[in-house]
Amino acid sequence: MTSTVKGRGFGPTTPPLLEYLQQILRGYSDGQILKELLQNAEDAKASEVKFIYDQRQFGTATLLNSGLERFQGPAVYAFNNAKFTEEDWEGIQKPARSVKKEDVLKVGRFGIGFSSVYHLTDLPCIVSDETLAIIDPFEEYFTDNRNRPLPGYSFNLKDIVDRHEVSDQLAPFLGVFEGQEDIKSRKSLQGTMFRFPLRVSPSKLCTSVFTQQEILKLLKAFKEDSLILLLFLRNVEKIDVFLRNSSTVPRNPYIQICLSTPDISSFRHNRILFNKQLEKYRSGSGTSDIELVERFDIKSSNDDVQGWVTAQVISNRESKQLQELADRLHHLPWVGIAVPLSDGKEKTILSHRCKGRIFCFLPLPEGDAGYSGLPVHVHGYFGVSDDRRSLKWPEVDQIQNPTATWNNLLVEVVLPDVYVKAILKTISVCKSEGRHVSCVYNALPDLELH
């Protein structure tokens, strides 16, 4: 029997895509953009990452839609040497519903972090393998076969690379980097390239306008962290940043960061074993602790070299509460320590102490909330604030917060063991390389400061 009582529909609704992205940008720093793209490349198991600030202007006569002409100017590109999977294509279309949410080995795949690129652009573009995709959060430029607006469109490169009527549309994606495969002849890209045409005037999505000055400030901040960006990544080994303003493909990077070690094959072999153990842990078949203790250098393009000892441990024992929270939060009980090695010329103990940063794979932004209070850098599979600028901690307003409790347990239960492994490795390295004992003493906590 149907009720005759009159009423009307009622209930919560989800926000439109544009409104959702506006909310993300209001709470998310634009200074993290390049780091988020680096994290996505790491999750994709890429070994090389390239960024380029391209100031060129491309033609506008032959485009998919005449309204797209305003996106043919200066842009930021991000390339990595891993192809998109079907899961990646699915995930990038679901910014509020990450398909990687429960995958403990995927830290930044195309969720809130990727949405930070909308600080730069109103029209992200992706080329990977045989596909070119354009995301249009305004739903202005593409429609379906019923003329209904769409939030973007994807194309098979085989169908458009030889079409003269869209040649200007494809031009910004050809010959961007030295050594890049020729998309036009191969009709595919061996890797993944993002293009973010810079916003030239405020829009409904974001009022930020990135001029050359603003982009160079973004790159400068990235450069300042260059010698620590690769410390706790397990796939990416090299990052290049280029500036381009002519038809000539740039060869000399503005910034270059790379890992270096005398025995690179053995170094990579150990990392492969570590990653395989991680996969076993994720599948539930791993029962013992996983550890990776390394000695390597990080070099930058201005000939700076910094030596490091790092120790990373994923603990599978000690704390029942830690394991319960790991299952509940889909986190890993993973902690790392990075000890900087001095050049061996010190004459005194405690001549230089590192101001340790906090990492969740990549360093948190500088500031009081981004420092560890220890003379070493500390990485953890931490729960971070929504803007990824600080850790959640069991303070007065978060006593019952499970993520805050998790972070506290990582520090109390796992970190001491990892710290000891890092110090022991540093002692061994100092002996074998003839380094001054200050390398070790500089890495020990100063109890008088706490």
Question: Architecture of the largest domain in CATH?
Answer: 2-Layer Sandwich
SSE string: HHEEHHEEEHHHEHEEHEEHEEEEHH
* Number of self-contained structural domains: 2
* Number of alpha- plus pi-helical segments: 12
Cα-to-Cα separation, first versus last residue: 72 Å
The third-level CATH topology of the largest domain is Heat Shock Protein 90
C-alpha-based Rg, rounded? 24 Å
Beta-strand fraction estimate: 15-25%
Give the integer mean of the pLDDT values. 87
Oligomeric state, counting identical vs distinct chains: single chain
Number of strands: 14
Query: How do the strands of the widest beta sheet line up side by side?
Result: 5-4-3-6-2-1-7-8-9-10-11-14-12-13
Largest sheet: 14 strands, mixed
**Class of secondary structure makeup:** alpha+beta
- In CATH's first tier, which class of the largest domain applies? Alpha Beta
Helix content range of the residues, please?
Answer: 25-40%
Q: Indicate the low-confidence ranges by residue numbers.
A: none
Principal-axes shape call: globular
TL;DR?
The protein is of the alpha+beta class. It has twelve helices and 14 strands.
3D architecture notes:
The chain has 450 residues and is an alpha+beta fold. It folds into two domains: 17-258, Heat Shock Protein 90 (2-Layer Sandwich); 261-449, no CATH class. The protein has helices at 17-26, 33-43, 86-92, 112-115, 157-160, 167-170, 183-186, 212-224, 264-283, 320-329, 402-433, 438-441; strands at 48-54, 75-80, 125-129, 131-135, 152-156, 189-197, 238-244, 255-260, 290-300, 305-314, 334-341, 358-360, 362-363, 377-380. Strands 5-4-3-6-2-1-7-8-9-10-11-14-12-13 form a 14-stranded mixed sheet, sandwiched between helices. A hairpin with a 1-residue loop joins strand 12 (358-360) and strand 13 (362-363). The radius of gyration is 24 Å and the shape is globular. The termini are far apart. The model has no long low-confidence stretch (mean pLDDT 87).
